[in-house]
Specification:
This protein has 371 residues and is α/β, with parallel strands linked by helices. It folds into three domains: 123 residues, Periplasmic binding protein-like II (D-Maltodextrin-Binding Protein, domain 2, 3-Layer(aba) Sandwich), CATH 3.40.190.10; 90 residues, D-Maltodextrin-Binding Protein, domain 2 (3-Layer(aba) Sandwich); 103 residues, Helix Hairpins (Orthogonal Bundle). It is built from 14 helices and 13 strands. Strands 7, 8, 9, 10, 11 and 12 form a six-stranded mixed sheet that branches. It has a three-stranded parallel sheet with strand order 4-1-5, covered by helices on one side. Strand 2 and strand 3 form a beta hairpin. The chain is elongated. It starts with a helix and ends with a helix.
Length: 371
């Protein structure tokens, strides 16, 4: 009897120990389930037209860099999904934040403001903002006037005049008692020295007037050689400021945006950048609308994501609008997800795998020609 009770007690002890050990596992099971995407659910993927990243044809089929990447990653994860279109980026972000969409796939740039309401996947494309201007620009003499009245130009003239005065003074001090051409009182002799140094500097010296003493001739030799270099530097500086490129158009670099009429697409991260840089701008509903204003010279420059600008210009505005050769404000493109989405980890792995594969570069090249 006592042996039976002992066995029964041992069995109860083992059952209790098993329950204790299984408790944490059972508690963790729901979390583990929540950390993995539900493969049975049809995901709703928000998107909007943003060539060449997301484009819809006449039959309603979606293509583009972002769309193709999503399809490759989703197929690898065996996800079921359908696309739902939004008219603007803010609609996509609000839809993702509210749980209306399981993900947003378009030309979405990662910013701190957006990160505060949604999560982003691993970036798959890095670019920046570009500046579009009218082809050829409008003829403008403003750069010429600006150059000739600038402080830098006045400084250069001041340096040349100062050097001529200094050399003229030295020549007069050496020659005033040995050369009648620099004699005849301070005013006459000093003016003769300055005149000679100026004529020598411009390489117009004829030999009729010149120093005769050894120190004076040594100074003259150094001045003639040095003035060649000085004039060459001055000429090169002025020439670079007055090239044909600067006579055409108003915008050639980012710093020019502060003094011209600038356009941007409303509701995009471009606005945040322009506000931060304190650049006034006009809002347009789409990039196409802004480029049309640029074509009619209602704007001097239009700022937008560079790959998107390049695509639109190449397909619609080739003869009237061009991109200047500059990129600023680095931007990263990624997919947007609801906060703590179980899709984030598998999507990150899939994106990295796709971008690192031989499939990625030809895909990007097919749409925009280069990375």
């Amino acid at each position: 009897m006592r042996k039976s009770m002992t066995v029964s007690s041992n069995i109860r002890w083992l059952i209790g120990l098993t329950m204790i050990l299984m408790g944490p596992c059972q508690a963790q099971a729901p979390d583990a389930a929540n950390s993995a995407p539900d493969l049975r659910k049809e995901l709703v993927i928000g998107t909007k037209e943003a060539p060449p990243f997301a484009m819809k044809d006449s039959d309603g089929n979606w293509t583009g860099i972002s769309i193709d990447l999503w399809r490759r990653v989703a197929d690898g994860l065996h996800l079921r999904y359908r696309f739902a279109e939004e008219p603007n980026v803010q609609g996509l972000l609000d839809g993702v934040a509210a749980g209306k969409y399981d993900a947003a796939v378009a030309a979405l740039t990662v910013t701190s403001a957006r990160e505060s309401i949604v999560d982003f996947t691993q970036p798959f494309y890095v670019t920046g903002l570009g500046i579009a201007v009218p082809v050829g620009g409008e003829a403008s003499w403003a750069p010429v006037i600006h150059t000739l009245t600038s402080f830098g130009f006045a400084q250069a003239i001041g340096v040349l005049v100062g050097l001529a005065l200094a050399v003229g003074l030295v020549i007069w001090l050496f020659e005033r008692r040995h050369n009648e051409q620099f004699g005849g009182g301070v005013a006459k002799g000093l003016s003769s020295g300055v005149w000679w140094s100026t004529v020598a500097m411009t390489q117009r010296y004829t030999g009729e007037v010149g120093p005769r003493t050894l120190p004076g001739r040594l100074v003259a030799i150094f001045w003639m050689v040095g003035s060649i270099v000085t004039i060459a530097i001055f000429t090169a500086s002025i020439t670079s400021s007055l090239t044909i490129r600067h006579l055409q158009g108003k915008v050639h670099e980012v710093s020019d945006l502060s003094s011209v009429r600038v356009g941007a697409v409303s509701g995009t991260s471009t606005e945040d950048t322009l506000v931060t840089m304190r650049i006034a701008y006009r809002e347009y509903p789409t990039a196409e609308a802004g480029l049309k204003a640029l074509r009619t010279h209602a704007l001097d420059a239009f700022v937008y994501d560079k790959p998107l600008l390049a695509w639109i210009i190449r397909t619609q505005f080739t003869s009237s609008v061009e991109l200047i050769d500059t990129t600023f404000e680095t931007q990263e493109y990624a997919f947007a997800l609801p906060t703590n989405s179980p899709l984030e980890k598998p999507l990150n792995v899939g994106i990295l795998s796709a971008v690192e594969s031989a499939w990625w570069q030809p895909t990007v090249f097919r749409y925009i020609g280069s990375r």
